[in-house]
Design a protein that fits this description.
The complex is a heterodimer. By secondary structure, chain A is an all-alpha fold. In chain A, helix 7 runs antiparallel to helix 8, helix 8 runs parallel beside helix 10 and helix 16 runs parallel beside helix 18. The longest helix of chain A is centred in the first third of the chain and has 66 residues. Chain A is extended. Chain B folds into two domains: 312 residues, no CATH class; 104 residues, Spore Coat Polysaccharide Biosynthesis Protein SpsA, Chain A. In chain B, the strands form two sheets. A ten-stranded mixed β-sheet of chain B has the order 3-4-5-2-1-6-11-8-12-7, with helices on both faces. The N and C termini of chain B lie far apart (58 Å). Chain B is an alpha/beta fold. The chains are: A mainly alpha, B alpha/beta. At the A-B interface, helix 1, helix 6, helix 10, helix 12 and helix 18 of A face helix 1, helix 13 and helix 14 of B.
Chain lengths: 368, 470
């Protein structure tokens, strides 16, 4: 009886599953068909768009090049372009943004700032579509459009990282120095922002940004301090030399210490030299590595002996950096390396000295 | 008794299938969101400007090469042309029996130099290290044969830069691939490794190590693999990346933080699936130390590789991949349902165990039990046909979805003809090809447990022999 019951139950279950499966089959069939249609539609739309771009370029490129670099009113040119082709026109302009310069670039930017393109981008800026907003922010930033600044500033508090990043970059491209503080404040609201992204934003400003940043450096956290020092280093901002020592002394974060040491080496900050020399024996090998390079840059051959101690470091990286530093400190450094290369007591240091000397021979073509 | 057993197994298959479907649906949704947002992200990023002045991380590229004399010079020449401010190229000749090393010495004016093994990762004996006079960033390591993992370790030992990129000697890279692969390291200090999307180069027009024009492979076998790769990279890896659950980064193109690689002792010698094993080991080691540690993936198609167009070679590849998966999973079984590793331990790793490792076994046994059940009258024909139709149709929908995503994002295949070929391949692969690969994977498992565990030979025709097909 039990067996019969379970058999009947199994048949009923199979029938109900079968009916469900039939529905699923139908559904999947329709899905497959729809997806194929979607792909084809996307592709056809794309091909049509590409054709339009091609036709547009063919027709308007001669007119554009006739206008570019001239003193003509851009509206004379743009008014002839149908507004429905705005997206294509913007793509067309993008191609030339990075290849033009001087008067030619200015005339291109006039198109963005002083024609109906401005209104078109302005409506994009207010659009709900992130893609359109990003596009507008990008073009206004390139065109350094000052009128749009307040809107871009308001975007700095938006949580969307893409909008924040593009807005901040555009403001920096405009060299809107007064917004530096707001950019830093906005960056603090972004959970996913990396130091490198922050640096890439700040590097869009002119060097004058360093004067603003130096005022902020003491109030910022260590991550932001590191970014600021990186910006100083990229602009080779010598005026930061006096504060460097204090920043290093207070620094706890490894990346900040490394960045400060790198910067001190680059600007050859003599007043930071004694401080940096103490890092030659720091427990962290990455810090010792940077200290070796900086001491070489600041002190030159007078520091050869100090650096040579790191040839016997327990980290390979530090040893290589010490040997590479010494090879540049001719003739004292090379003499030290030659002595170490033939010594028997420290095989690791000897092999690294041999490696660096053999590289030198290869590069100079002479036996060292 | 048998009936009950078979019925239970059939229900198990049904539940197994439904779970797989659910996971795929979730992965699909996540991948769609992620790839579209990624595209938006890089659209206006001006990548090269982000690396302005000194804002970049130097990279050492390691290229293990074994008997690659036919294409090695072309490969190195193309790699030297990559767009990146500071990189070092290290070619490791892994005891080749052909004239690879002579060709390299002659073409790049190599001179012997002294480089001690810096990080002491285990590797076979290094005979010589050469440096090029023509290109100061080119180093060639000549060593005794020890396999791919061993060759990479030897390369790491002489690498100077903080990031290590490992590529196959026959991979073709997009010229801006380093700019793209390094971006996650710049954006997030906790990134340990990054992988990129690999695409099939068969049918493309390749000149001097560069893809000049993208085409579609002529043979159906390669076309099926194009669809497979789209599915694996656009959906699988992108989806798992969202939960920090990437367990494999293709050996054809991967990038690591050198200190992380050295800290875990480099690649495991003798490993069958070294590219999966190292990633799983990285998760295991670093995520206990730093819960924010991440291994990520960029969906950009940055590397092109040759797909086997011969059943025998493809079989060897698939059995080897399966052995590699089983080997890595067994070595790190501790991660299975381990809550300390977050979604990686509770979803990604169990997925690999249940669906990637044991999937082929369950599939093959399922076919057998299904047939017996029909013969014994436990399952009706109608039910069998309906169930198989659902499985096949579902596979088709998944494959077509990956083509949809490709079309919405990268649009690498330029002609409508290519799309029709992809759709056809997405349908046809379900009738024979998929069952065949399942069988090979099943065979791989049997060989792993009961037969040979070695790598086996992998023959490739070389890009010069691939003809463009437009």
């Amino acid at each position: 009886m039990n067996l019969l019951y379970s058999f009947i139950l199994s048949v009923i279950t199979q029938i109900s599953i079968l009916s469900t499966l039939t529905h699923i089959i139908l559904f999947l069939f329709i899905c497959s068909f729809l997806f194929v249609c979607v792909v084809l539609l996307i592709r056809l739309k794309d091909l049509r768009f590409n054709k339009k771009v091609e036709d547009f370029t063919q027709y308007w490129a001669p007119v554009f090049f006739n206008y570019i670099g001239s003193d003509k009113d851009p509206n004379e040119f743009t008014d002839r372009i149908p507004k429905k082709n705005a997206s294509i026109f913007l793509l067309f302009l993008k191609k030339y943004i990075h290849s033009l310069s001087g008067k030619e670039l200015q005339s291109l930017l006039n198109i963005i700032n002083n024609t109906w393109i401005f209104d078109y981008l302005l409506s994009d800026l207010k659009s709900r579509s992130i893609e359109r907003r990003l596009r507008a922010i990008y073009y206004f930033g390139i065109a350094k459009n000052q009128i749009i600044k307040p809107i871009l500033i308001s975007f700095l508090t938006i949580r969307n990282l893409q909008i924040f990043f593009q807005s901040a970059r555009s403001l920096a491209r405009m060299n809107a120095l007064e917004t530096t503080e707001r950019i830093l404040a906005g960056a603090r609201l972004q959970k996913k922002i990396s130091q490198e992204i922050l640096v890439s934003i700040l590097l869009e400003f002119n060097q004058e940004v360093c004067e603003y940043l130096i005022k902020r450096i003491y109030v910022e956290n260590e991550k932001f301090k590191t970014a600021i020092i990186k910006v100083f280093r990229n602009f080779n901002y010598q005026d930061a030399s006096p504060i460097l020592r204090k920043i290093i002394d207070q620094a706890k974060d490894k990346l900040l210490i490394i960045e400060c040491i790198k910067f001190a080496g680059q600007i050859e900050s003599l007043n930071a030299l004694d401080n940096i020399k103490t890092y030659l024996q720091h427990p962290d090998p990455d810090i010792r590595s940077e200290a070796v390079k900086s001491v070489k840059q600041i002190g030159g051959d007078t520091e050869s002996l100090e650096i040579s101690v790191n040839l016997y470091d327990n980290s390979w990286q530090v040893q290589i950096d010490a040997a590479e530093a010494l090879v540049n400190l001719k003739p004292v450094g090379i003499s030290i390396l030659k002595l170490v290369a033939v010594s028997q007591s420290e095989p690791r240091a000897a092999s690294i000295a041999q490696m660096v000397l053999s590289e030198l021979s290869l590069e100079s073509g002479q036996n060292v | 008794m048998f009936e009950l057993l078979f019925t239970t197994f059939n229900y198990f298959i049904l539940i197994y299938f439904l779970s797989l479907v659910t996971i795929y649906i979730i992965l699909n949704l996540v991948s769609f969101k992620k790839i579209l947002s990624y595209n938006l992200d890089v659209g206006y990023a001006d990548l090269e400007k982000i690396f302005k002045v000194r804002n970049y991380i130097p990279i050492s590229i390691i290229v293990p090469a074994y008997n690659e004399a036919n294409g090695i010079v072309e490969s190195v020449q193309s790699l030297l042309q990559l767009i990146y401010p500071n990189f070092q190229l290290i070619v490791v000749n892994d005891g080749s029996k052909d004239e690879s090393i002579d060709k390299l010495v002659k073409n790049f004016e190599l001179r012997k130099t002294t480089v001690p093994p810096l990080y002491k990762l285990d590797s076979q004996q290094i005979f010589s290290v050469y440096k090029s006079i023509k290109h100061h960033n080119l180093i060639v390591v000549d060593k005794a044969n020890g396999g791919k993992a061993d060759a990479i370790n030897a390369g790491v030992n002489v690498a100077k830069h903080p990031l290590i990129t490992v590529i196959d000697a026959d991979s073709i890279l997009e010229r801006d691939c380093l700019l793209k692969i390094v971006r996650p390291f710049l954006e997030n200090e906790n990134i340990l490794a990054v992988g990129g999307t690999i695409r099939i180069a068969n049918g493309c027009n390749i000149r001097k190590g560069h893809v000049i024009e993208i085409g579609m492979a002529k043979s159906w076998l390669a076309r099926f693999q194009v669809v497979e790769y789209l599915r694996a990279f656009l959906f699988g890896r992108t989806g798992f990346d969202a939960m920090n659950g990437i367990l494999i980064i293709s050996g054809a193109f991967s990038c690591f933080r050198r200190d992380a690689l050295v800290e875990i002792g480099g690649y495991r010698e003798g490993s069958i699936g070294e590219d999966m094993e190292i990633i799983v080991r990285m998760h295991k080691y670093f995520r206990r130390k730093n819960p924010k540690a991440k291994i990520t993936f960029i969906p950009d198609p940055i590397c092109w590789t040759e797909a086997p167009e011969n059943l025998k070679i493809l079989m060897r590849q698939r059995t080897r991949w399966q052995k590699g998966t089983v080997d890595s999973v067994l070595l790190h079984k501790y991660l299975f349902m381990n809550f300390r590793y977050g979604l990686m331990g509770t979803i990604a790793f169990p997925y690999y165990v249940l669906f990637e490792t044991f999937g082929p076994v369950i599939e093959i046994i399922g076919y057998i039990v299904f047939i017996i059940s029909i013969v014994m009258g436990i399952v009706s024909y109608e039910f069998m046909i309906a169930f198989l139709s659902v499985a096949v149709l579902y596979g088709i929908v998944l494959s077509i979805l990956s083509v949809v995503l490709e079309e919405l994002s990268f649009k690498k295949y330029p002609k409508i003809k290519h799309l029709f070929i992809l759709f056809s391949a997405a349908v046809l692969e379900n009738f024979g090809y998929r069952q065949l690969t399942s069988w090979w994977r099943f065979k791989g498992m049997l060989e792993y447990f009961f037969g040979k565990r070695s790598w086996g030979q992998m023959e490739k025709k070389g890009f010069s022999s691939l003809k463009p097909n437009n």
